[in-house]
Amino acid sequence: MMSWGQLGFQDAGSYFMEEFIYFHDFTMMIILGVLSYVVVFLILGLISGWVDSGFVEGQLIEFMWTIFPALILIQIAFPSLLLLYLIEDFSKSFLVCKVIGHQWYWSYEIKTESSELLASVDCYMLPREDAFGMRLLLTDEFLMLPINVPVRILVTSDDVIHSWTLPSLGIKGDAVPGRLNQLNLTLNRKAMFYGQCSEICGANHSFMPIMLMGVYSWEFFAWLDRL
């Protein structure tokens, strides 16, 4: 969960979010290197008297300032394309979680890959006096998913467009009426993760929090038995 004054990402709660953070740091290092190079030569050009009125062409330097940016872009493109491929890989999911957005609460249906319904739960926001200082973040019920188990998330809506978003997990899926959007999720640790609807969906848009708890498999099955 975010804290005041935090400038970086939240602690990753999924393997995809870890990769997103690594890719962000890698890209930022490249950007800082290019920026430093440009600033240094800009300052040198301003303070020095390097002027050659007879200099009209330089094929070597033109080749270098063409090929180096291309190599940098290739370095960025390969890990980016790999992440895009992994995000869309749904071949190894063991559970299906259907997320349904309503005005203004979330419903969850846990199913097997063979579409056998295991459990369903509705999650409403807790009133301010029961939220223990975590205003607009707590719900009366919450979703549980097992850690280290690939889960296919199906997102849809019952009325207007919503958006199921959990920043610490690196997932955001638009809930559109009459349409199913797929997300891929594998939790990497036991924790509680918080999110909110990130699509303006009406008067109570601010009151659609999301709570997802990553648990061990035996705790997940015990939760299913209680529902």
UniProtKB/TrEMBL annotation:
Residue stretches making up the Cytochrome oxidase subunit II copper A binding domain: 92-226
Gene3D superfamilies per record: 1.10.287.90, Cupredoxins - blue copper proteins
Single Gene Ontology BP annotation: ATP synthesis coupled electron transport
InterPro entries from the UniProt entry: CcO_II (IPR045187), CcO_II-like_C (IPR002429), Copper_CuA (IPR001505), Cupredoxin (IPR008972), Cyt_c_oxidase_su2_TM_dom (IPR011759), Cyt_c_oxidase_su2_TM_sf (IPR036257)
Subcellular compartments: Mitochondrion inner membrane
Function: Component of the cytochrome c oxidase, the last enzyme in the mitochondrial electron transport chain which drives oxidative phosphorylation. The respiratory chain contains 3 multisubunit complexes succinate dehydrogenase (complex II, CII), ubiquinol-cytochrome c oxidoreductase (cytochrome b-c1 complex, complex III, CIII) and cytochrome c oxidase (complex IV, CIV), that cooperate to transfer electrons derived from NADH and succinate to molecular oxygen, creating an electrochemical gradient over the inner membrane that drives transmembrane transport and the ATP synthase.
Protein name (Swiss-Prot/TrEMBL): Cytochrome c oxidase subunit 2
Organism lineage string: Eukaryota, Metazoa, Ecdysozoa, Arthropoda, Crustacea
